[in-house]
Amino acid sequence: MIDVEKVRAETPGCRNVIHFNNAGAALEPQPVLDAVLGHLKLEAEIGGYEAADRAEAALEGVYASLARLINGAPDEIALIENATRAWDMAFYSLKLGPGDRILTAQAEYASNVIAFLQIAAKTGAAITVVPSDESGALSVEALERLIDERVKLIAVTHVPTNGGLVNPAAAIGRVARRHGIPFLLDACQSVGQMPVDVAEIQCDMLSATGRKFLRGPRGTGFLWVRREWIERLEPPFLDLHAATWTSTEGYEIRRDARRFENWESYVAGRLGLGAAAEYAMAIGLEPIWERVKALADTLRRSLGEIPGVTLRDLGHERCGIVTFTVEGLSAKELRATLSKARINTTTSSLFSTRYDMTARALDLLLRASVHYYNTEEEIARFCDVVRERAAVR
Ligand SMILES: Cc1ncc(COP(=O)(O)O)c(C=O)c1O
Predict the structure, then answer these.
(1) Distance between CA atoms of 203 and 347, rounded to whole angstroms?
(2) Which ranges of the chain would DSSP assign to H, the alpha helix?
(3) Relative to the CA of 82, which ligand 1 atom is closest?
């Protein structure tokens, strides 16, 4: 059981807002704030390089914390400024050629698909969207049927930006492993709200961000690459951190996952990211997941009782992201009304998940994403505001 009073007391933002934008950027807990501000202060007091030297052991600890969070190893972790670049460093390291196929999911994120399209245009590789099952999750049977010797990558988003869907990552991993196909998992929206275990999922590469359900600072993220894959992937960019200039004509690329990093970084943010991982693990990813699911179910149930509301979440198992539309009321207007009531939400548009939104004839959704520090009272207040606004459409 999570001590909700305690975690709320440790979350300064809970005093100001009802924060249902955890899939955007969650409220940071005090230990994260302390780690970031403490380091920024030290930089101001003694100098940035000198502060980093002093924080060396703590910075190494960040790799260990993130590795423990996802059940990987510290040398398989690269600290990268966000999930997009982390994902890019893995994807653009793969060598794809004419006729090679990338299998992806219906709810894939825009930035990933834009990268597929760019590489497809440059190399002649092809993109295949794996059909969904009746619940809207990626169909593992369809995936299995689409496998042939030309498939060189399975790249799937675990939890999409536009809804509560949880794609069956471990079942996808079993197919990928059986056929020896690399599996890149975009875990940007899942890490921090549920247990994510790379050994169980059997992915080969995983990208994640700091600021969302992990409750870390903005401008932080990480990539995990399975050890067997690290040296098979040549990063698209190299610098003097990722590689060493060993002779006038040559260089050697690092042998650990830090080959995907570059030298200059947001040191305070990295420390905050490590603090966020430790904070989540201290609470426990299982209890976090149980509470997030329960709160989201309550929210869906209450919203479902409001006339005009249509819930839009897909999947057998649903997470803390709740999306819906209200007949005759734009998501933008509703968001503005909620914002006036100091309730944070966001909207999710066609431009973020075009395959899925087009298939469902949707263009804009209201997205309310809950975390374990939210409460039933906040859900009731949220639903009151939605009900009142929906009544005057
Ligand atoms: C599924 C998914 N992948 C990747 C990203 C990008 O993450 P970042 O903004 O940290 O680069 C997002 C952001 O919303 C996302 O929802």
Answers:
(1) 30
(2) 4-9, 30-46, 48-54, 56-70, 83-91, 110-123, 140-146, 169-179, 198-201, 227-230, 267-283, 285-304, 331-340, 354-359, 376-391
(3) 10
DSSP letter for 318, please: B
209, 222, 349, 369, best to mutate for ligand 1 pocket (most atoms within 8 Å of CB): 209
- Beta carbons within 8 Å of 283's beta carbon, 6+ residues apart: 2, 7, 372
Distance 383 CA to ligand 1 centre (A): 27
Going by C-beta distance under 8 Å and a sequence separation of 6 or more, which residues neighbour residue 298?
Answer: 376, 379
Torsion over CA: 140, 141, 143, 144 (sign): positive
**Cα-based angle 63, 64, 68 (whole degrees, multiple of 5):** 115
Give the predicted TM-score (pTM) of the model.
0.98
Instruction: Return the number of other C-beta atoms located less than 10 Å from residue 182's C-beta.
Output: 20
Buried b (16+ CB within 10 A) or exposed e, 221-259: bbbbbbeebbeebebeebeeebeeeeeeeeeeebebbbb
Residue 393: the pLDDT is 80
What is the residue-wise DSSP string for 109-168?
Answer: -HHHHHHHHHHHHHH--EEEEEPB-TTSSBPHHHHHHH--TTEEEEEEESS-TTSSB---
CA distances from 332 to 86, 200, 352 (A): 30, 39, 16
Confidence at residue 307, expressed as pLDDT on a 0 to 100 scale: 97
**Closest ligand 1 atom to 186 CA:** 3
Cα–Cα dist 66/78, whole Å: 10
For residue 110, what pLDDT is reported? 98
| Residues of the chain with confidence (pLDDT) below 50 | none
